[in-house]
Amino acid sequence: MAIAKSWVVIMSKFYLLFFCLLLVLSCSEEEQTHAHFNGCEKLNPDKHDHFLIGQGQWIGQLDIKKNKKIPFNFEVIQDSVFIINSEERIGAIINNYGDSMLIKMPVFDSEFHFTKTTNGLAGYWYNNAKKNYKLPFTARLNKAGIKNRFGISQNTNYKIFDGEWETTFSQGSDEEYKAIAAFDQDQQYVTGTFITQTGDYRFLQGNISNDSILLSCFDGAHAFLFEGRLVDGVINGQFYSGSRWNEPWVSSKNELFTLANPFSLTNQVKEEKLEFMFPGVDGKNVSYPNKRYDNKVVIIQVLGSWCPNCVDETRFFTILHNLYQHRGLEIIGLAFEVPEELSDKIARVKDLKSHFHSRYEFLIAGGASKTEAQKALPILSDVSSFPTTIFIDKKGEIRKIHTGFYGPGTGTHYTKYVSEVSVLIEGLLSE
Q: Which of 104, 190, 230, 400 might form a disulfide with 391, Cβ 3.0–4.6 angstroms?
């Protein structure tokens, strides 16, 4: 009983510190200056100032196909913009750019170029992580309300999508994979995500219209649209990722359906201890193991700055490192990046590190592919997902390997992961 009480105290302190730090770390330097979300301070606008675009709530749209658009909400406060996906707020700064305006998204290498029109804004969103990739962008002041991003008619004749659904993407094809669709419905407003074996589709937000569900997300790296229709207890839908990918999905209500344990998917196939050498963000080679990590619990984070799940994990690991570094926890991020040149890879990782004020070490381990990651870590059976996480004890032995990451958009699944990892770290540090 004493042990149980002690553990309750430990976890209570952990979660208190976790959420306090989350409020601080969720705001970049730019966001701390301008934001009013997530515990950041809001500046009081000076009525005499001249701002680049109209203040308040906006609805943006990305054109992905003929008659197919991905809507998203954003708020403008002074010359800052905050992309809104359910509980998530992503802050950026609006700047003049010649005859147009520019918004560079934080962390991810993407940006908006646009001008003002009689109806609002018009231009393009450029995803520089992909070759020759841009989508037409328009925006107007939002009169429908933040909870009606799809502009649906309000009525009481709608079906219930709330709860968890067993889901199959690309059913019957070689690309088939399972997922959990987790929806939280408030009348015609709905939030949630799709949880796959290796990650999730982050914060989705949308609406219910009669027997149809519409969900979307824009996070600076990805633009997602999910459409589905519920007939006889089965949802049949289409998933669109930008303009280059779409696939079918089908869901049936099943609160008991589970995915495989993420700690069981990747294994150590060689008995020797993990060793590697890669350049750090200063360009100098760093080897592991080394004296810095002697008698330390070490987390090896396999990531890419282009990967939203990796970015979510970096936010969490930054908090974890701040909580436990004084007790002997260290983290090494092995980054696999899109640019070919090392200097450009370094620049991407520096942006990620700076955004979260991360104090742990990041190394440039290769190009942005699972094949590259497998070559870099031959001790593993495979690298099937970004991120993949290796937990190493004080003796340098691999104790756990976790494939993928369930981020804050997954609700209870994220809470469970945070609890499991905190228990694991507490145990390893106590040995």
A: 400
